[in-house]
Amino acid sequence: MNKLLKLPIFLGVVGCLCGGVLSLTNFITKDKIAQDEYERANAAYYKHFAEFKTKKEVALTDELKAGGVTLKEEIFSDEQQTASLGYIYTCSVVGFAGKSSPINFTLSFADGKINNYVNLGHGESAQGAKFLDWLDKGGNNLTNLDAGKAETGSSVTYGAISKAFSLCTADYLANYNK
C-alpha cells in the first residue's frame, strides 16, 4: 500500500482511539468534576455553615449598597429551601489601601447574632492587615470591633469594616425580629 495512504489511515485510527478514550474519561468523571467545582465555588459558604446545601439571593436596600454590601443571600440546609440556616452578606469596602485594593469579605448571621466572618482578600497596609488578621480569629472579635481598633491601631480599616458590620447587623436584625 502506498505510504501516502498508510499515514493518514494510521493517524485517523489513532485520532479516533484518542477521542474515544477522552470521551469515555469525560463520561466517567463529569459528575465528580461538577461537584468539585460547585464545592470550590462555595467554599466560603461552608466556612459559615457546614450544613450548606443551597442559597437564595435576597434584594439589597440602597443603604446596604451604599455601605459596600454587594450581595445578600439566605442559606439553606436542604435543596427545597425550607430549612434556613441564616444569611450571608458579601461586602467590599475601601480601607487604608484605597479603591485599588478593596477589602472583600463575607459576614454571616444566624439565630439573631453574628455567626462568622470570612476574609476573601485585601491589599491593606501593615496596620490594616493586622486588624484583619485579628478579626479573622473570630470569637468575641466579631461583636467587639473596638477592641481590635485599640489593639492594632488601625482606625481607617476599622472604620470601613465597622460601618459594613453595622449595616449588615441592622438589616439582619430588622428582618429577624419580624
Helix count, per DSSP?
6
Q: What shape does the CA trace take?
A: elongated
- The overall average pLDDT, rounded, is 85
Distance between the termini: 84 Å
Give the SSE string: HHEHEEEEHHH
Count the strands?
5
Number of domains: 2
Radius of gyration based on Cα positions = 24 Å
- What fraction strand? 15-25%
- Please mark out the parts with pLDDT under 50 across 5 or more consecutive residues, or reply none: none
Report on the biggest sheet: 5 strands, antiparallel
Strand order of the largest sheet: 1-2-3-4-5
Quickly give the structural class: alpha+beta
Percentage of residues assigned to helices: 40-55%
SSE arrangement:
Blueprint: H1 3-41, H2 43-48, E1 54-58, H3 62-66, E2 69-76, E3 84-93, E4 103-110, E5 113-121, H4 126-136, H5 145-152, H6 155-176
Antiparallel strand pairs: 1-2, 2-3, 3-4, 4-5
Helix pairs in contact: 4-5, 4-6
Can you walk through the features of this model?
This protein has 178 residues and is α+β, with helices and mostly antiparallel strands. It has two domains: 2-41; 48-176, no CATH class. It contains six helices and five strands. A five-stranded antiparallel beta sheet has the order 1-2-3-4-5. A hairpin with a 2-residue loop joins strand 4 (103-110) and strand 5 (113-121). Helix 4 (126-136) runs antiparallel to helix 5 and helix 4 runs parallel beside helix 6. The N and C termini lie far apart (84 Å). 25% of the residues are buried.
